[in-house]
């Protein structure tokens, strides 16, 4: 190793290991070649999925490809980014792909599922969730098949959802995908704001005895999130969120484990016949449909995940995706079913509110704070595609960088404010709000577009595609109508 290599973090360790390799062994393990910073860097997990989804796949704006906004915040990280890009060309492994898929699906959606089970009933919700998972997997594989056809027949590279739509139906296809994406991502951001407001408000109310009117405290807590999210929305490089995103995942897992543990204890101590859950809720069953789609809405990251895989293992992607969805489905059913069985008709829209008050349990306070922090750290990732899609239309490239950049910063601030306003008006009807996001915004992306594009580009499976499209349209209409008609 050269002196400059040894000077890198961990260089002495790597030099020592390489110098003591067995005689005749010329192959240096990858984990020894890489520095520690590279091993924990974005690699394929965040950059190849989110960056690929937003920049390469959506082909948005030249700001992200040729001006100084791509320059790292710290010049000392130049080597780090170069090493990362060189290593990432090898493609993601099976383990990395599995991690990315789980990361795409496990988030805030699972916390809204118990209330969804209350709206649908235990048996109907389990069956509906299984159907939603099966249809989502089917449509994701349809989209991958479209990508493969374009890759081989039309010599396209880095095929995205938007590109598939554009090749299938021209500019209108891309616009439809982008519109649905913008609406769904804004909805996710609003639900994050509401979740944080409700949990932090609960902590302040019970743990610190800060009394105020409901309207004032809710509006204040939502407004206080704006200066928190605005600097995060101003960040230009997604890879700076790599470690915070991983940390958010750890917090989410901690919260789920704690909630499930408390729920099981509640079930064990419940008196016989005390449970109030039902098999089927004839009044609000349609609202569950939107929540079920919301929970499995990760189709936007499927093609970037597939594209980031090593070419030698891409043929395994359908099996990997299917088994991951089965595992995620089992987790969702176990979590939502257990919580609903424990609390029945008292199940809250935000399941953390079913825990003991923060004044009685430090564990509850820890879960509410950590899960809120996890969603705060995840918020910029949800807003990032919206920012890029809209900025590419509103702000053509200009050479006067300073003023141009601050105009876009102002737009990003306005976008954060928009999510806060929408979140405020949706906070009292959170289960209806989530159902609208899933039914009206996510169903086209998850069920309708993939099958239509597949019929146009692949040219087979028309009957099956048509059946799924009809199911998607019915789900969209029923879920949206039920959520709107029962608002307030």
Automatic annotation (TrEMBL):
<keyword id="KW-1133">Transmembrane helix</keyword>
<dbReference type="InterPro" id="IPR013057">
    <property type="entry name" value="AA_transpt_TM"/>
</dbReference>
<keyword id="KW-0812">Transmembrane</keyword>
<feature type="transmembrane region" description="Helical">
    <location>
        <begin position="216"/>
        <end position="234"/>
    </location>
</feature>
<feature type="transmembrane region" description="Helical">
    <location>
        <begin position="410"/>
        <end position="426"/>
    </location>
</feature>
<feature type="transmembrane region" description="Helical">
    <location>
        <begin position="464"/>
        <end position="484"/>
    </location>
</feature>
<protein>
    <recommendedName>
        <fullName>Amino acid transporter transmembrane domain-containing protein</fullName>
    </recommendedName>
</protein>
<dbReference type="Pfam" id="PF01490">
    <property type="entry name" value="Aa_trans"/>
</dbReference>
<keyword id="KW-0472">Membrane</keyword>
<feature type="domain" description="Amino acid transporter transmembrane">
    <location>
        <begin position="91"/>
        <end position="481"/>
    </location>
</feature>
<feature type="transmembrane region" description="Helical">
    <location>
        <begin position="432"/>
        <end position="452"/>
    </location>
</feature>
<feature type="transmembrane region" description="Helical">
    <location>
        <begin position="318"/>
        <end position="343"/>
    </location>
</feature>
<feature type="transmembrane region" description="Helical">
    <location>
        <begin position="363"/>
        <end position="390"/>
    </location>
</feature>
<feature type="transmembrane region" description="Helical">
    <location>
        <begin position="176"/>
        <end position="196"/>
    </location>
</feature>
<feature type="transmembrane region" description="Helical">
    <location>
        <begin position="241"/>
        <end position="264"/>
    </location>
</feature>
<feature type="transmembrane region" description="Helical">
    <location>
        <begin position="123"/>
        <end position="144"/>
    </location>
</feature>
<dbReference type="GO" id="GO:0016020">
    <property type="term" value="C:membrane"/>
</dbReference>
<dbReference type="GO" id="GO:0015179">
    <property type="term" value="F:L-amino acid transmembrane transporter activity"/>
</dbReference>
<feature type="transmembrane region" description="Helical">
    <location>
        <begin position="284"/>
        <end position="306"/>
    </location>
</feature>
């Amino acid at each position: 190793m050269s002196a400059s290599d040894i000077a890198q973090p961990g260089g002495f360790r790597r030099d020592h290991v390489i110098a003591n390799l067995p005689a005749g062994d010329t192959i240096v393990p990858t984990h020894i070649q890489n520095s520690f910073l590279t091993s924990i860097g974005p690699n394929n997990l965040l950059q190849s999925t989110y960056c690929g989804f937003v920049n390469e796949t959506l082909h948005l704006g030249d700001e992200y490809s040729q001006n100084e906004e791509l320059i790292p915040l710290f010049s000392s990280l130049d080597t780090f980014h170069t090493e990362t890009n060189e290593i990432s060309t090898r493609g993601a492994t099976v383990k990395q792909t599995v991690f990315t898929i789980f990361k795409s699906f496990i988030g805030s959606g699972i916390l809204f599922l118990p209330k969804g089970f209350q709206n649908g009933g235990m048996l109907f919700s389990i069956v509906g969730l299984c159907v939603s998972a099966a249809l989502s997997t089917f449509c994701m594989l349809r989209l991958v098949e479209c990508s493969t056809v374009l890759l081989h027949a039309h010599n396209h590279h880095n095929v995205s959802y938007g590109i598939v739509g554009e090749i299938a139906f021209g500019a209108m296809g891309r616009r439809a995908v982008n519109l649905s994406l913008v609406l769904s991502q804004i909805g996710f951001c609003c639900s994050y704001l509401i979740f944080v407001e409700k949990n932090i408000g609960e902590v302040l109310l019970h743990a610190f005895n800060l009394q105020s009117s409901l309207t004032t405290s809710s509006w204040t807590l939502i407004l206080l999130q704006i200066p928190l999210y605005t600097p995060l929305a101003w960040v230009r490089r997604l890879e700076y969120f790599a470690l915070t995103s991983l940390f958010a995942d750890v917090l989410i897992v901690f919260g789920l484990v704690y909630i499930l543990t408390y729920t099981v204890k509640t079930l064990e101590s419940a008196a016989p016949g005390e449970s109030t859950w039902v098999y089927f809720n004839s009044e609000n069953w349609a609202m569950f449909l939107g929540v079920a789609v919301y929970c499995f809405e990760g189709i936007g990251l499927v093609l970037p995940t597939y594209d980031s895989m090593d070419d030698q293992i891409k043929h395994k992607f359908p099996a990997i995706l299917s088994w991951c969805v089965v595992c995620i489905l089992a987790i969702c059913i176990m979590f939502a079913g257990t919580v609903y069985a424990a609390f029945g008709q008292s199940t809250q829209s935000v399941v953390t509110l079913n825990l003991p008050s923060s004044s009685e349990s430090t564990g509850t306070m820890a879960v509410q704070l950590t899960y809120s922090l996890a969603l705060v750290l995840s918020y910029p990732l949800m807003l990032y595609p919206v920012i890029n899609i809209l900025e590419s239309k509103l702000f053509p490239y200009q050479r006067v960088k300073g003023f141009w950049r601050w105009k876009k910063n102002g737009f990003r601030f306005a976008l954060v404010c928009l999510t806060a306003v929408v979140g405020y008006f949706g906070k009292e009807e959170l289960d209806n709000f989530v159902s609208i996001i899933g039914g009206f915004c996510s169903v086209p992306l998850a069920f309708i577009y993939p099958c239509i594009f597949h019929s146009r580009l692949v040219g087979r499976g028309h009957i099956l595609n048509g059946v799924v499209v009809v199911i998607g349209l019915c789900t969209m209409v029923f879920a949206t109508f039920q959520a709107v008609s029962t608002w307030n």
